[in-house]
Amino acid sequence: MASEGRPVRRGGLVGIQGPLQVFDEDGKNVTPHPLFQSDPNTATPRTYGSSSTWISNKSTTKSGLEGTAEPGSGQDPTLSLSAVQVGQEEMEEELTEADLDQRVDIYLSETDTLWMFDMPSVMVSVEAEDAGRVLERNKIYADICKTKAGSERFEERMVQTLAGAAKNKEVQCETIIMEDKGMMVTSWDLDNSLDASEIEPTSRAEGFGATTGGSSKSPTTKEQEQTVSVSSDRESAVPVRSQEEEKCHSEAILTSENLKQDLVIMERILMENIFQPKLAAYRQIPVLIEPDITSDRGDTATASEEDEEEEHDKEKKDEGKEGKGLIDPSMTINKTPEEDAAPRLEQLWSYTCDLTSGHSVSSMAWNKVNPDLLAIGYREFDSKDQKKGLACCWSLKNPMWPERIFQCDHGVTAVDFSLASPNLLAVGTSSGSVAVYDVRSRNDAAFLDSSASLNKHTGAVWQLRWVEQERGATEGDKKERLMCISADGRVTEWLIQQRLDCIDLMKLRRTEREKKKLPGEKERKSEAPISQQAAGMCFDFHPEDTDIYLAGTDEGHIYQCSCSGKEQILGTYRGHKGPVYRVAWNPSSTDMFLSCSADWSTILWHRDSQTPLLTFSSVTAFVHDIMWSPKSAFIFAAVKESRVEIWDLSVSIFNPVISHTANPEANLTSILFAKNTNCLLLGDSLGGVGVWELFNLDAPGSNKVGTLHDIVCPVGAV
């Protein structure tokens, strides 16, 4: 780089070979230090920049060369301040005006760039050449992140380092010795100790002084008087608040939840001890017999047991006489083995208490998960007297008092447990309301209620049922639904949401009966019915296809309906002359069903025939309830006022195998078979539910037929 010639000031630049140095007017070295300092220990020193100045004057150049060390030499290239000053003085003496006016060429060069820190940018301009490639990579990465969630191709795994070997440390100490110490005190001692801290010392001194007044008495007498006087003084000073605190404390103990729970457990233990033989017979396990403890009282104990057995046998004989009026009394004294093997009923116990007495049992239902839990609905036997109803949950652990009691404003007419949620109990009442209770809660308030529903029933809900139906788009998608039939002629499905609301599946219409016209009789105008809808009394869903159900009405008609279409009636069965109280599909032969009515008859139907196959009528009495046995397709039970009848169609289709009077003072209202045992439950109009054991129901001499169809078809053909 060349510059125009201009005079150089003294103390300015010095033209020498090697590093450029700058001096000010005072001769001080103001040369900038380099940014990079070379390591003095390195073998080869480096020079990062140089500038040279050539001056035509020889003396100047010579003096400059003499005062400066070459880069290749071993001397320090940096001149000291004293050397620079000496060279400057020599230059000032030797330079002339001609030398100063001479033109000087200065050449500047730059050193290489040193990168101390390099941080490349993550941003790319849109106008750059690589912008398209970067955008495409970003898009691919975003798609991978989206498809990673829930994909089977990506897995997240954790790696854990091996833990070090565990070390066990043991500490040995001396044996800890424990001692039990106790003392017995009475309530008087506690009161005295409490009062002693509150009585003033002066009063206590006066009391002691009064007791030690007589000196002629013996020491024992003095001590007794002191004790009596102190205790009387303390008793007189008992404050009123201590008695109140004691009373509040005792009330808190009696009302505590822990005490109630402990009492419930104790009560169950006592009940299981009392009812152990009967519970063992119910569960079909051997009955434990208590051994004789003393030999002296063995004779009296055996005698008392024999007396009790004789009385029990007499009661059985009396019941047998009442149940079978055609049996000769002489035959009951000496029974043959064949008669002992005859089917019979024996009562084990009865679910009844003071709370349920005076109510009529309207319905019963087992819990579908816990077979020991039974729900019973109660209502007043006289429908004119509208009193409150009850829904109670009884357990085998305590046959004398219910586990849960739910008070209802109206009589309970139907109960049923849910299968999907076994803790939910649906209850229907005579006012048409439907409620769902949670039996796990001790609160008797309803979990859900239909009181706020605008489409609730206006008549009594005679029957309700939890039903599993497939109505989803995919097969196997079953959902449990609550179905009801009411006296207002509607079959409804209840939707369980934040509140109970229902939709109508079917409205039962009344049908006009054809009257025979006598010869010569004029035609009369038909009278319009008061209500266009027939009252629904009962229903039952098909055990295999739950979209099909039967509905019985107060006209005596039975309708076969379908849930798939609204107002769809598949068939009508006319055979009863009174209200139909119950219909029941056969659990094994699913094309057969039974119906009972107030016309004293029980009819067996076939699904494809509108003509009755068999009619069972043994006693002129209302048939309130019927039920098929869960263990046999040939056996069913029916209750007729105060009698219960057990029919075995494989033995006889004309007479029941068992006809027994359960309670002469009450009418039987409902019947229910036990699930896993040979027992039968009978509810009556006085609020009792008797548990009866069935003996020898499958007669050994009877020839069983393959199916119920083999028995019915020949009879139906005739």
Automatic annotation (TrEMBL):
WD repeats lie at residues 573-615, 616-650. InterPro entries: Dynein_IC, WD40/YVTN_repeat-like_dom_sf, WD40_repeat_dom_sf, WD40_rpt. The keyword Repeat applies. Gene3D superfamilies: YVTN repeat-like/Quinoprotein amine dehydrogenase. It comes from Lepidothrix coronata (blue-crowned manakin). GO terms for molecular function: dynein heavy chain binding; dynein light chain binding. It holds the Pfam family WD40. Residues 38-63 have a biased composition (Polar residues). One of its GO terms (cellular component) is axonemal dynein complex. Keywords: Cell projection, Cilium, Cytoplasm, Cytoskeleton, Flagellum, Repeat, WD repeat. This is Dynein axonemal intermediate chain 4. Residues 232-249, 313-325 have a biased composition (Basic and acidic residues). It is found in: Cytoplasm, Cytoskeleton, Flagellum axoneme; Dynein axonemal particle. The lineage of its organism: Eukaryota, Metazoa, Chordata, Craniata, Vertebrata. Residues 23-79, 199-249, 293-338 are annotated as: Disordered.
